[in-house]
Amino acid sequence: MPKSRIRKKADYSPPPTKATVVKLTNRSWVAPVMLAMFAIGLAWIVVFYVTDGKLPIDALGNWNIVVGFGFIAAGFGVSTQWK
User: Fold this and answer.
1) Contact (CB, 8 A) for 46 and 38
2) Per residue in 12-67, pLDDT tens?
């Protein structure tokens, strides 16, 4: 019976080095903007209730509450950018 050929194994090659993480953006603006949106939304709603609906915008009526919650929701939306 003929002898089978021996397959040559490839020489040892070390595993590839891990790529260094490069920080592409500076997200230091996220926390202040998020907190500002929360504060503006809360202040909007508080002012609306304290002034019996005369302020911040009288023409909006009860929609002022929606505007206040909109600012708070925008704050939560900005918070998704925080790392």
Assistant:
1) no
2) 777 888 777 666 577 889 999 999 999 999 999 999 999 998 888 889 999 999 99
52 vs 27: CA distance, rounded Å: 39
Which two structure tokens, joined as six digits, stand for 59? 């023409």
DSSP the chain: -PPPPPPPPPPP-PPPPPPPP------TTHHHHHHHHHHHHHHHHHHHHHTTT-SS-GGGTTHHHHHHHHHHHHHHHHHTT--
**Tell me, what's the pLDDT at 30?**
92
**How crowded is residue 44: how many other Cβ atoms within 10 Å of its Cβ?**
20
6 phi-psi bin (left φ>0, alpha ψ -120 to 50, beta other): beta
